[in-house]
Amino acid sequence: MSLELYGHPFSSYTWKALIALYANGIAFDFCELGPDHPGNGEFVSKAHPAGKFPVLVDGDQVVVEATAIVEFLAVRHPGPAPLIPTDPAEAVTARMLDRLFDNYVMTNVQRVVGAYIANMESPDPAELTAGKDGLRRAYAWLEAWLGANALPPHVSLVTCAAAPSLFYADWVERIPEDCPRVAGLRAELLALSPVARCVDEARPYRMLFPLGAPNRGLSERLGLLQRLPRFDYLAELLLLAPVPAVAVGVEAADELGIFPTHRVKVRVVGEAKCA
Ligand SMILES: N[C@@H](CCC(=O)N[C@@H](CS)C(=O)NCC(=O)O)C(=O)O
What we know:
The chain is α+β, with helices and mostly antiparallel strands. 56% of the residues lie in helices and 7% in strands. The protein has three domains: 3-76, Glutaredoxin; 88-197, Glutathione S-transferase Yfyf (Class Pi), Chain A, domain 2, CATH 1.20.1050.10; 214-275, no CATH class. It is built from eleven helices and four strands, in the order βαβαββααααααααα. Helix 1 links the parallel strand 1 and strand 2 (28-32).
């Protein structure tokens, strides 16, 4: 019997499971949550103590919590992706980083997003401040950690946790200039094909992001060149270079709303600059 994954294409924690599934080429049925599929929502609300997703079903076994799903896939459906490092000490590091991305990056993203969902017109400023402060603190910690340590090889549990959390965190609180390693990691993650696939599949749902997803569409390119200094320069480089570009270019591809593996031809309208 094939696996079933209950989730939503725009959900960060669903990505966490999807990245592991895609990276190992595991066949599964995607059971999308939403008004068109009320039965899927009913199943999830019973399967998880708080009704949260993703939920994985493998025959008789139901696995909840994204980290546990990745661990389960590593044990029951191993493939080429080293989801959990075989060295026990490295596995501890992977699990530590997984907790860090969930608890201090994604949780702070959800805190800010939750404030908007609670009151779109007037989100609680204390919640916004706490969430954004927490993100900046997490970025600074990560920047220092990345300066002294190496991540486990992709695609690991860390990849699965880091990619969606940094992807959305940057929408909530831009990764600052003084955290180049964190920004570089986000770009590196977006360059991985299982991650790029999640980004692309989620693209039609961007209007669901309560803060407003960054308007990084191609038609906005000229405006972006003025407004977003760091990545605009990269974007301009991308336009001059064939796509797919290097990892930093993939970040620019995301800015432009271009799926990284697409080849595009764009009229060059400005001078390329590289910071
Ligand atoms: N700790 C859970 C968190 C899952 C989670 O927060 N999922 C979100 C979607 S990204 C969700 O279910 N939101 C709906 C809700 O909280 O009711 C995990 O790791 O799987």
